[in-house]
Amino acid sequence: MHQPVTIHQLPAQAITPENFRPYGQVIFAAPDGKGFDQEDAQLHLSEGTPRFYIMRLHYRGRSFSRITRHQRCTQCLGALAGQEWLIAVAPPGEAGCPDPVTIAAFRIPGNCFIKLEVGTWHAGPLFEQESVDFYNLELADTNITDHQTCSLSETYGLEFEIV
After folding, report:
1. Which long-range contacts (CB under 8 A, 24 or more apart) does 154-157 make?
2. Domains of the chain
3. For the chain, which terminal residue's Cβ has fewer other Cβ atoms within 10 angstroms, N or C?
4. CB burial string 2-25: b at 16+ within 10 A, e below
5. Phi, psi (rounded to 5 degrees) for 107
6. Per-residue pLDDT tens for 49-97?
7. What does the record give as the reaction this protein catalyses (predicted)?
8. What is the secondary structure of 58-92 as a DSSP string?
9. Could you tell me the pTM of the whole model?
């Protein structure tokens, strides 16, 4: 028998490199010719074949009850055509599910992309448009061999709505 589900409202904060640091990096445009440094995406893609592709996602809304992580690679996500979107994240950890109090939500403008650290829990991309195209950089088999999902509704009786 499932426990009743409580809807928890999670405020979306504007993303900055500082407030997103526990989960990964925010990458903004840089002048052509700038040398590689710590402001560039620090990627970990050495455990397989990298895959860079455009995925078309259809309406996702602002609610989630599942959160996922990848333990073998970093993941980069960004919306095409300047679309704003949302993501919820929790820091990497050893437990099989993140502590719900550590989940934070961010509003991602269309002029940057994010890099999730290895093991960062994430729900999204989330958005209210009919569809949004995203570029995604991960390993070719990430969604087959490196996709651990926690059901927040089954584990904690929680569903989140980003406001």
Report:
1. 154/2, 155/97, 156/97, 156/100, 157/3, 157/4, 157/5, 157/6
2. 10-24+45-162 (2.60.120.480)
3. N
4. eeeeeeeebebeebeeeebeebbb
5. -95, 125
6. 999 999 999 999 999 999 999 999 999 999 999 999 999 999 999 999 9
7. (S)-ureidoglycolate = urea + glyoxylate
8. E--BSEESEEEE-SS--EEEEESTT--EEEEEE--
9. 0.95
